[in-house]
Amino acid sequence: MPTLNLIVVFTLGIAQGFCLSDEYDATLAKIMNRCIDSINHKPEPGVEAILGGQCAPWKNRSCCSHENQDKLHELKLYNFDFEHCSQKLSPKCRKHFIQDLCFYECSPNTGPWIVSGIKMKIRKERFYKVPLCQSDCEFWYDACQDDLTCIRNWIRDFEWKSGKNNCPLTSPGCKKFKHIWETAKDFCEEIWDHSWEVVPDNQNCMRLWFEGENPNDHVAIIKAYEMLGSKGTHFGSASLAALVALKLFLIRLV
């Protein structure tokens, strides 16, 4: 899929008596067309028409390739062992982790939250404090609260041996999720080292699963607008209307 060029936004700007700067256009396009720099993510989002299962919501505009979807659904990417306590994940918990992994690999909406400087073999970037809708977090936690783990932070606290994650000797041993994380918010924010920030559903927040139009487009657009505004670029209500047009343009790209 070609890079977002904001022609519709620019045209709307002229019609309303203003124009967005080339720098603004380029910056906004870069934010909205950015995928994480990793060994599996594509350079920029595009169509993956045969994505299915829990990754299906992103088939029209995706940062992941369909070649990886089998490993995604088997939870076998990166040699990470989700069943490190020698007990299989319950089916309902497994489903939510697959949705979470599909979001991480496939979502085209994390650009405003990507941070660089990550010194890992599998990635140079990550997303940080992406707003997750509270209800999505609670469904995930409720589904997994009786499954087992041994540590709170799955990014930092495992010991890696022979390319796989293991419970460290200093861990309290395997316990139910609900005894490792006492609340849904604690679980969602801590497990992936604050990749997520849980917010009420009535705020702009991401959904892990949806059907039809991607509701996360709107969340990313608003955040991108805030980022550009925080750098001293203010365009008022006319440019907010332009960003609404951008949302419509993103949808039409699919």
What structural keywords apply?
254 residues; alpha+beta; two-stranded antiparallel sheet; two-stranded parallel sheet; disordered N terminus
Biggest β-sheet description: 2 strands, antiparallel
Q: What portion of the residues fall into strands of 2 or more residues?
A: 5-15%
Helicity level:
25-40%
> Which outline best applies?
globular
The total of helices stands at 9
Radius of gyration: 19 Å
Structural class: alpha+beta
- The chain-level mean pLDDT equals 84
The neighbouring-strand order within the major sheet is: 1-2
* Number of structural units classed as domains: 1
First CA to last CA: what distance? 9 Å
Q: What is the number of strand segments?
A: 8
User: Unreliable stretches, pLDDT < 50, 5 or more residues?
Assistant: 1-19, 232-238, 250-254
**Secondary-structure element pattern, one letter each:** HHHHEEEHEEEEHHEHH
Structural summary, described in words:
- By secondary structure, this protein is of the alpha+beta class.
- It has one domain (7-253).
- Helix content is 38%, strand content 9%.
- The chain is built from nine helices and eight strands.
- The protein has helices spanning 7-15, 22-32, 69-73, 91-106, 134-144, 177-180, 184-190, 216-230, 236-253, and strands at residues 114-116, 125-127, 130-133, 148-149, 159-161, 164-166, 175-176, 196-199.
- The strands form four sheets. Strands 1-2 form a two-stranded antiparallel ribbon.
- The longest helix has 18 residues, at 236-253.
- The protein is globular, with a radius of gyration of 19 Å.
